[in-house]
Structure prediction request, 108 residues.
Amino acid sequence: MLKSCNCIKSVNFIDSACGTGGFLTSAIENIRAKDVRSTGDLDVLENTIFGQELKPLPFMLCVTNLILHDIKLPGVVYADSLNREYTSISAKDKVDVILANPPPLGPV
Prediction:
């Protein structure tokens, strides 16, 4: 999925139900392989990866996963992405790419 978008380090990503961070780490590795050449580039990349997770264990695993992928301060929050008023979303919340799994077919 990420290879088809031809993303660079200055593109903002979010996975609003990031689980353990698989899509986020894939984005990091994909961009790092083609567009990160210095620690400054890594800092730019670090500030463009965002995630949200509601369940405590996957949240903790996601933060750990991002740290293991050289993200010093993961931009992942422990929150319910569906429990937010539409009118509270502003320009500062804008992202370029949304990473997401298809919704489950069974009860949640």
The chain has a mean pLDDT of 85.
